[in-house]
Specification:
The chain is α+β, with helices and mostly antiparallel strands. The protein contains ten helices and four strands. Helix 5 packs across helix 9 and helix 7 crosses helix 8.
Length: about 200
Amino acid sequence: MPKLDFWYEFASTYSYLAAMRIEALAKQAGVTVEWRPFLLGPIFKAQGWDTSPFNLQIAKGKYMWRDLTRLCEEQGLPKFHVPAKFPLSSLGAARAALALSDEARPAFSRAVYMAEFSDGLDIGDAFVLEAILQKLGHDPRVVLVKAGTQEIKDKLRANTEEAQRLGIFGAPTFVLSDGEMFWGNDRLEQALAWAKK
């Protein structure tokens, strides 16, 4: 089966939308998806930014919040909740996602996004991550201890460095086995079509 790497950041609003629809679309297209969490912070920092471009460009940020409200409604998702602080810290969630198996990662990732952008919870809070893991049937202590190991820290750093090497500058980004790259939730269908070529 053709494969697509789904590069996503837990603080990314548009990654949320992609995460909630990618599996059904990929299954329909006959494409395998590899979920690749990474951190945008170091990538933004390399460009001289200390926060999200949606914060740096006020008009763009204002548009994004309205756009997310419309798109969530269109996708049948719960009402979009603007976080009290943006972006939220995604380090713990990214490490926890990598501490889980490849099979468990998608459900956990979707649950984190729902907690953040639907329920208005702070995903930087370990108690929020514990509750999500417990609800999904994982032992939170086991997962979070593993998430704090050097192995997982190195894995997340390697993911972020690979994203930089690939030229990824935002999330979500979809990368195909031939190196072709598509950026943005609205390019998911195009990426899947390319994967099938």
